[in-house]
Each structure stands twice: as C-alpha cells, then as structure tokens.
Amino acid sequence: MKGxxxxxxxxxxxxxxxxxxxxxxxxxxxxxxxxxxxxEGVFDDCQDIVKAVSNDLQFKRKYKxxxxxxxxxxxxxxxxxxxxxxxxxATKSNTEQVSFTVPSGNFGNICAGHVARMMGLPIxxxxxxTNENDVLDEFFRTCVYRxxxxxxxxxTSSPSMDISKASNFERFVFDLLGRDAGVVKRLFGEExxxxxxxxxxxxxVFAMARARFGFLSGKSTHADRxxxxxxxxxxxxxxxxxxxxxxxxxxxxxxQPGVPMIVLETALPIKFAATIVEALGHEPERPAxxxxxxxxxxxxxxxxxxxxxxxxxxxxxxx
Length: 319
Hints:
Elements: E1 9-14, H1 20-27, E2 34-40, H2 43-55, H3 57-63, H4 73-90, E3 98-103, H5 109-118, E4 123-130, H6 135-142, E5 144-146, H7 169-176, H8 181-195, E6 197-199, H9 206-211, E7 215-219, H10 222-236, H11 242-251, E8 261-263, H12 273-280, E9 301-304, H13 307-318
Parallel strand pairs: 1-2, 2-9, 3-4, 3-8, 4-7
Antiparallel strand pairs: 5-6
Helix pairs in contact: 4-5, 10-11, 10-12
C-alpha cells in the first residue's frame, strides 16, 4: 500500500497499548498516503469506530471506504488456506484428523478454521486460547457471552488479544443457531446492547458448540506465558512470542493420542521483547530488516474514541 497512487490507508490502533516494536512498525511509515490514528481507548474502541464508518453507507460510498482487517470476509477466506496447509503437512492421508489451537481475542483466525472445518477439512477440535481477557473462553465454558467495557479490559503481555468484544463472533453464533438471522440480530443488536450479555446456557444448541463444531477453550495468564516460553526454549531451543505461548499452554490440556495438535504461531517474538527478556533473560533474535526500527522517526495522530472525529480526519485527508 505504501506510496500507491489513488490509495489512502487509515490505520487505527489503541494509543499506548502496543509494544514499542509494534508502534515502531506502524508509526515509522512516512508515506503520505499512510495515516496512523492512535485512538485514546482500547482495541474494542478502534473496532467500534471501523464498524461505525462502515455502517455509514453515505460516507462509505462517498469516500470509497473498504476494510482489510478480519471484519472483512475476504480476510477470513484467505486465512482458511492456512488450515488446509497445516493439515496437509501434518498428515499422510485424507482419512486422518488433526486439531488446531488458536490464540484468539477477536475470533478472526479461528473463525477461518471454523470455515475450513465446515468446508470439509477433517478437523477434530478447534481449541480457542485467550489471555486474561477471557470473554470467549467464558462463552465456550458457560455459553454466556458477556462483553466488558474499556475500563474492564486488561492490558496484558499478549496485547493483540486484549479484546472484550469479538468482532467475528456473530458469524459463529449464526451457524450455531441454525443460521437464524433474526435471532442473531436480537442477541447482538438488542440483548447485548441493552444488557451487555446474552445467555444460551439453557438452549440445546450449547452442546453443539463442542459436539458439532468441535470447539474447546482455555485461558492463559502472564505467569503461564513466562513458564511456557521458558519451557519451550529449554526443551526445543525455540523462542516463541507471548500469544503463541498462550496457545501452546492451552493446547497441552487437549492433546489426544493419535491426533496431531497444531498450534498456530501468530507473531515474531521480537515484537514483545520485554516479556521474552523477563522469561529468558535475553532479547529474542531480531531479523536484520528490523534493526534500529524503534529509533526511526514516527508519524501518527492521536484522536479520542469518537467515530465522528475519525470520519472528519478521513474526509480532510482524502480531499
């Protein structure tokens, strides 16, 4: 996208809630067509703004707005390929099954796994791993979906999962409820807006989450991440990032004899160097292209968690 004629990119991120490396990766982009907007809030606030912009059809059509994160169906279609690739590498025949564990906060990547399984890929279990922001783990344990506000969303050492409103979750609930759009609209558009939660625990469909769709879940904490990073490094000589550590910790609870368990690695360890140092006593390997990235000049704009102000910023920089 950098420097592309006729293309302008507006990226939202939670102000002060990313690692120094992540900030440097985004904010060091100096191209005139790239606009970083640091939102005074959490990741959920950023997503709410993206949805508000997308739902303003007049604004969207006027400025030809599209989205490229996991809210966009095309992103999920592309990610579904990973599950097929992983399956073919872990098996020798099409009669074998595998399970996947996915670190997840936004239910995007694992939703792609759900799509792959619905397409017929022989996936036994889809194991969802959360950090301390365990909204999704709570649902798969209790069938109560209870979102949290910004003040109750923890800042953790696996920050890409610091999410309390999973933007792709409606897609799975749609399948879980027999693709009844009216019920999904009531749950997410009315009950969630009014009560901040909905409860399917007495609905027979709850059992289907595991029996028909293969979902299991677990939670990992900062202490778990440190232990898993140390253990993986000591046993295999491999350094993993904090999110992958969450996945690996949870995966170990659900390994079954004869069924390969594939844990999706989600980020470079150098992105979360402080936690790696805490776990191992030294920084992780830094790829050559990222040497000195934190020292590069940065360009970004800080805005409040207000969709109107973000739309004004977009309009001012598109004209």
